[in-house]
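Re: the request from the purification team.
They wanted to know what the chain is likely to look like in 3D before they choose a buffer screen. I agreed to run a prediction and write the result into the notebook, where they can find it.
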Amino acid sequence: MENPDELRLSVSKTKCFSQCKKQFEFSYILKLPKKDEDYHIFGKFCHKALEDFHQAYINGSTDPFNLQMGRAFKSAVVEFKDVLTKEMKKECFDLINKYLKIISKDKDNHLSIPVLAVEKTFRFNISDNVVLNGMIDRVQIDPDGVLHVGDYKTTKNKKYLKNDWFQLLTYAYIMYMEDPTLTKVRGSYILLRHDFECITTEFDLKDILSIKDKYLDYADKMNSEKEYPTTPTALCGWCPYLEHCPDGQEKAEQFNAKRNALPIYGEVKW
């Protein structure tokens, strides 16, 4: 049974609160319905194919990579068949073919290291009434013995990821809580649409332990927030709750940011 006094936090929920409290209210307080955009569907589709591929080897498969990836791709197509477009299927097919070439030829690439876990779920109490939950796309141990957490990104605009380590640091903290002997964790954003380029950093123990206080600070702010003010930006035009937000609509008009006008944060104009 859920504790009504328990505050559940995640990376996405916390970042939503920090970026626009009004959007946070629409999503997590009022729980207004949100439509899955094409770029969300595409991201989930690619994640599923990669998850099934690596999970097969975690489970002991010895089949050639191409055969196993073929099965993973077909399985993902079946799961998302009602919402996929031909363009999505083709692009994902091309991406996983690139991935196979990388892990088959470049043995020194981070991606070529055997994966220990995929879509690793976690739920951890960071205080008596604050719970941190989420999912880590991939976990591995690199040849130098450093634990490495990775998150797949289908964005075309990779600039916003640089120096934004909040998500990876969260995952590093979760892995530390499972194994307190860790003194360093490596983290990567894996850019599927940029030939699987990895934006990588390393966290020492001080970095890892710092994230707990950040979440507790956000928890206090969420619990005390009453007004939920809007934070209008150029991205308001892509907010899934724009129709409910006059301030956002005004900002969207100022930037002429109509939906599908430009691909942003992984959105694709198919």
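For the purification team: Confidence is low (pLDDT under 50) at residues 257-262, 264-270.
Please add any questions underneath this entry.
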